[in-house]
Amino acid sequence: MHSHSSKHDFVSKDKKSMVFFYETYIGRIILKILVRPFFTNLSEHVLNSKFSCLMIDSFVRKNHIDMSQFECRKFTSFNDFFTRRIKDGMRKIDLKEESAISPSDAKLSAYKIDKNSCFYIKNSWYSLSDLLKSNTLAEKYIGGDLLVYRLEATDYHRYCYIDNGYQKRNYYIKGEFHSVQPIALRNYPVFKHNSRSFTILHTENFGDVIQMEVGALFVGKINNFYEKASFKKGTEKGMFEFGGSTIIVIYPKDRVTVFDRIFKNTEKGIETVVKMGECIGVKKYR
Q1: Residue 253: its pLDDT value, please?
Q2: What is the pTM of this model?
């Protein structure tokens, strides 16, 4: 297993800026402007420019990124670097039929969905119907399991399919972009207001699983590669461009048994560190 634990309330090196934006009056006024799509699009344009390559070396040094794990090539922009592919074999996909896997490198929290379709994420209560913008769809997942995978800027930002199956379309929900760092989550109901995309995955082993990708501050794009398609477990589903982002995976009732230690960590306020393709639970046979 690749897992170990990190404190749920850990605040990154950017703590001072997050305190300013989310815990001061002037900062919140500025933030209201910054989270508008115009600034997200501007940021995206800059990060896709060739001049943004100047940011790469310092980012690698500051975050102690082991570049030997990734494909060796010349990058055309910072976003090109940020969405770099990892070398074959650096992420082992658990292909066993009964294994439920992580779609990405992330810090994982796990929750049961109660009869009121509400669950607790990062110090705030959220309704599943708010996330999905559908009461009817949310009701189908009462009693199921909801997994939150939080990616930091240093994580590998490509993600994969969690089983074999097929999908019919991607659903996009427009919103504002807010940081997914813990300090932001204490002051703003982030998931309700972020742009997000979700897909109903008709899987072979776990039923109709919902996978949702959530954009964060200055993340203008959630790149899902396929619309109507069949897919194989471990195949790339998409990628995030620059910024911390989040993936939410929702399993129907009685389809998966998530490892108990993950639930226990969540109850203690601890996130479980996982890698893409790592087993996080097993199929529940009915």
Answers
A1: 96
A2: 0.79
